[in-house]
């Protein structure tokens, strides 16, 4: 069985925290790949700031240097709100010889009881929890904890820094930084 990590999110924008998490889980669990799955519209958040086309382009730039990281647009193609359960049903049908490891931050671990069809979902995928400042990894659901270097970066922080005209250098890959500057994204107009 092929061992594949899944890292979902809005990636608005993608940042080094996403890449560090993916690499640490890949190494710790000896995965063969990590698939980054951007949402079209996340079920638990307000809509993304940027159009999906721009978020995909930034994600492609961020992943370009690592052949073990892949972009998968299954949720974008579905459009509308995406539920992990529906995504995993489709992936299990398309890749029956793969085991999937769904990577979530501690903020999402606490939210698991509210996930759509969580009791069915835990039979489709192994959850992997990583720490986030201010959250615990305590849950009644089975998760594998992977220790990662705690880098307290979020897309929200990056957008805030850009609105305040502060640098985001080293918080995002250089290619993503250039893309954001070239398009003037996230700054107040």
Number of strands: 6
Q: Architecture, according to CATH?
A: 3-Layer(aba) Sandwich
Radius of gyration, Cα only, in angstroms? 16 Å
What is the class in the CATH system? Alpha Beta
The helix content, as a percent range, equals 25-40%
Main-sheet strand order equals: 3-2-1-4-5-6
Strand content: 15-25%
Task: Give me the strand/helix succession.
Answer: EHEHEHHEHHEEHH
> What is the typical, i.e. mean, pLDDT?
91
What structural category arises from helix and sheet content?
A: alpha/beta
Q: What is the topology?
A:
Layout: E1 2-9, H1 16-28, E2 33-38, H2 52-63, E3 69-71, H3 74-78, H4 84-94, E4 98-105, H5 106-111, H6 118-121, E5 126-130, E6 143-145, H7 155-163, H8 174-183
Parallel strand pairs: 1-2, 1-4, 2-3, 4-5, 5-6
Helix pairs in contact: 2-8
């Amino acid at each position: 069985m092929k061992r594949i990590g899944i890292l979902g999110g809005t990636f608005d924008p993608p940042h080094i925290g996403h890449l560090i998490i993916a690499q640490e889980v890949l190494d710790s669990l000896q995965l063969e790949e990590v698939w980054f799955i951007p949402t079209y519209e996340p079920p638990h958040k307000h809509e993304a700031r940027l159009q999906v086309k721009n978020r995909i382009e930034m994600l492609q730039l961020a992943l370009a240097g690592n052949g073990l990281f892949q972009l998968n647009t299954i949720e974008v193609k579905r459009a509308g709100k995406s539920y992990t359960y529906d995504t995993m049903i489709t992936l299990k049908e398309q890749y029956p010889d793969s085991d999937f490891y769904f990577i979530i931050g501690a903020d999402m671990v606490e939210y698991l009881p509210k996930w759509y069809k969580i009791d069915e979902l835990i039979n489709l995928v192994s959850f992997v929890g990583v720490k986030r400042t201010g959250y615990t990894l305590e849950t009644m659901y089975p998760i594998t904890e992977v220790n990662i270097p705690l880098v307290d970066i979020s897309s929200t922080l990056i957008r805030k820094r850009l609105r305040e005209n502060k640098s985001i250098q080293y918080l995002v890959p250089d290619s993503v930084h250039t893309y954001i500057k070239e398009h003037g994204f996230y700054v107040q107009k």
